[in-house]
Design a protein that fits this description.
Length: 334
């Protein structure tokens, strides 16, 4: 009898120990590049809104200088969620062979629901008055094949202009582009906030076109992605993470919280509040309140990428989308 009781106690202890091990929070590393602009850089400033954080999952936001480094980290299991622009997504699938990559959530859309569409600038008093005037000119881009480069190539191709035959492309960082245009070193630049709010650019530059003009409507620019195997293994924790993220998104997008949010954004971006006051308003890109990605708008961008020869074969975005997690999370977050 005594031996039986001891064995029963031992079995119970082992079961409890196993349960404790299973209850360990799943560690999820989420990438970001731009402070405030990428969700992982700011969402976890509002852990007080998160009911599952530290219980079923924990997050390590990981800063990357570029998306190619993110793709490598995904491929080697050093990252669980990457925020990829459509341009990087196509490369990850086609070039890096990440065919199990899945679109799971929205991070940013261009020109959707009355929100800003990123613009391309020329000088007010310069020689470029129309798109056709870009023939023979020098165009700046942040990187060949990037999400702001593809719309330019797509639109100029419709006007019969091809690089390098008809125009020259030089790469530069966004912080340097305004000066390059104003100093007549280039004839054309893309610009994003906060650089597009530079008073010198507003005074001396003018918008030639926007991304929505080039791609024919709103664009799903950036999405959260994860690999199918990780999703299958940790689905419950991923839904919990997305539910908590959606609660934080609701707070950040609510106009009544704007002053507090601007204070947080200014601290993270090391900028005065006035420089980031546009964040999470209609002057900023659109972010879906329930983090639901617009797959048709993502498809339109992938088609443009293929159309300019930066993808060898077409990609069907729906084949790489798993929005079931974010839909379940949104239903729970209400």
């Amino acid at each position: 009898m005594r031996g039986g009781r001891m064995m029963g106690l031992l079995a119970a202890c082992l079961m409890l120990a196993g349960g404790a091990a299973r209850a360990e929070p799943v560690k999820i590393r989420i990438a970001w590049v731009i402070p405030v602009g990428n969700w992982a850089s700011i969402l976890y400033e509002k852990k007080d809104l998160m009911t599952h954080y530290g219980k079923t999952y924990e997050v390590e936001p990981v800063h990357f200088q570029s998306t190619p480094a993110m793709i490598s980290a995904l491929a080697t299991g050093q990252l669980e969620i990457a925020d990829l622009a459509y341009s990087a997504f196509g490369i990850a699938v086609e070039n890096a062979g990440l065919t199990d990559l899945r679109i799971i959530a929205d991070e940013g859309q261009d020109g959707a629901h009355g929100h800003r569409s990123s613009a391309y600038y020329v000088l007010k008093d310069g020689p470029v008055k129309t798109i056709d005037d870009l023939k023979g000119k020098v165009l700046a881009t942040v990187a060949v094949g990037s999400a702001v480069d593809i719309p330019v190539r797509a639109l100029l191709r419709r006007h019969g202009l091809e690089s390098p035959r008809d125009y020259t492309v030089v790469e530069a960082g966004f912080p340097n582009m305004n000066a390059m245009l104003l100093d007549h070193k280039v004839d054309f630049i893309p610009s994003v906030e906060p650089y597009a709010l530079d008073p010198r650019l507003l005074e001396n530059g003018r918008i030639l076109f926007r991304i929505e003009d080039a791609l024919g409507g709103p664009t799903q620019l950036v999405v959260w992605t994860a690999r199918a195997g990780f999703i299958a293994e940790h689905r419950a924790a991923m839904v919990d993470l997305l539910e908590d993220a959606i609660r934080a998104v609701h707070f950040l997008l609510d106009p009544k919280n704007h002053d507090e949010v601007v204070g947080i954004a200014a601290r993270l971006a090391h900028q005065p509040p006035a420089a980031v006051a546009y964040a999470f308003t209609s002057a900023d890109g659109y972010r879906d309140p329930n983090m639901l990605p617009d797959i048709p708008a993502f498809q339109r961008a992938l088609d443009a990428q293929h159309g300019v020869g930066l993808l060898k074969a077409p990609l069907n975005a729906a084949d790489y989308a798993d929005v079931s997690l974010v839909k379940e999370a949104a239903a729970r977050a209400e």
